[in-house]
Write a structure and sequence with these properties.
The structure holds two protein chains of two kinds. Chain A is mainly α. Chain A is built from eleven helices and one strand. By secondary structure, chain B is mainly alpha-helical. Chain B is elongated and about 80 Å long. The chains are: A mainly alpha, B mainly alpha. The interface between A and B is large, with 95 and 85 residues. Strand 1 of chain A pairs antiparallel with strand 1 of chain B, so a sheet runs across the interface.
Amino acid sequence: MKLPTPPLPKALRPKPARPGSRPPRNGSQANGSVQDLRPGTANGSGDRPSKGGGSTIDREALREKAHEVPIGIAGWLDERSGASPFARGFLYRKTPKGTNWAYTLGSATMFAFVSQAVTGVFLAMYYNPAPADAYESIARISNEVFLGEFVRGMHRWGSTVMVVLIFLHMARTFFYGAYKYPRELNWLIGVVLVVLTLAMALTGYLLPFDQRGFWATVVAVNINSSAPIMGPYLADFLRGGAEFTATTLSRFYSIHMLLVPGLIAVLIGAHLYLVAKLGITAPPWLKAEKDKALSRDEI
Amino acid sequence: MNAKEKEQYLRDYSVLKNQGKSFFPYAIAKDGTMALITMLVIIFMALALGAELGPKADATTTSFVPRPEWYFFFLFELLRVIKPPALTFMASIGIPTIWLVLLLLLPFFDRGPERHPLRRPIATLAGIATIAGMAYLTVLGALAGSPNEIELQARGQEDGKLATASAGCLGCHTIGENGNAIGPELTDVGARLPRQAIARTLLNPTAPMPTYQELQQKDPEKFQDIVDFLASLK
């Protein structure tokens, strides 16, 4: 499916330069504020032929000024951060011909992660990771807190959606051969993100502290401890000792809401940086036909 | 990929890229649509399915059903499909770890320049086989009966069968076709251990198996039924 070319909204269209005013410098609008300091010539209003009474002109000028406000703020930020080349490079980079809907799976996975983060923040406001109160606090969220059950449902099913999406994204990358040169590093980061996502699912399963989650976690950690070399150490780290104790729950909570999501956020950043830097892959069945105009441009 | 192939790829890619459209607003519009669909699916599932909260965790109970989330079924099911105890280690850790390492190192051993899925049949078939295997194991896991059920012929031990099924033994042991192969198999435990030894093991088990002392004190008849049933398994 191809999207038709939408018209640019009015606010984004460049305005024609007014007679007498300096040609606008692209992006940084610092000159606008400089102009305002000079009496009389502000916005070149002196050159404009007056139509109607003074009040109309004032309103026009005001509207003009109001339009300048966001540009002024963006200009102020840009002058101090120099961010606009990056933003422009990120937003106006080209995506190759033939990208289809399968290419949205990665961003959808990230969106699911953002949704998990937001709902997770609200759940953490009411959750208490103490073995004596964890189950009760989840019951409170479900039964008493405003929209609590809904937010918990979103968090619970959001995990399923995220796991499904990340596997679909991985399958798309695999079958399109998108892990090959020069994107090997991004594939590595992606596989680590899959593992971290599964780690999130596993650690989150214990937190409601009901029978299902508790025993599934006991079994999972026991399986973990049967691994050679690292297994017993990893299991001890997860349990906070040789047995399931009161520390286990708070340890899982900390891993679930601080350690792993922090790592995921950092790795998503690296993943995105590499996507922007290396470009989105073209579908493997597309062949590049040398464009005459383009080769002239390159010369 | 040698240097020439790399160069060729970068060249072709830059041509295709230059023929494409700008990320904003075209790709953003698609991504935004997909994000909206994702959001609606999550909200719909939250409203329609809710978030259940089972009975409170109790480390002293024995009638638990350790079922993971459905997307871990394929890992869990590996344990049940691979029966020999010597290979249990392979099922629990070995195969998933090997698969993960293969996935991580994929771009380092699959370095050919070809990207079309139909022109790299080995990779494509391996991918399809992996997905099919995971799907098969997931379906098996979903269809597996509750671990509180024993299908084995019980030779007039109905009470003991019921008691054993509800005591949660199958969480870790297999009896016939049922249960999880985490602990030793119980299908023929009667042939290996005498009645008294079975009773002793239930009362003073080796960790991590929980003890059934409480059951013996509260409901000695039920405890005896379990011992009788297990001893009859030969």
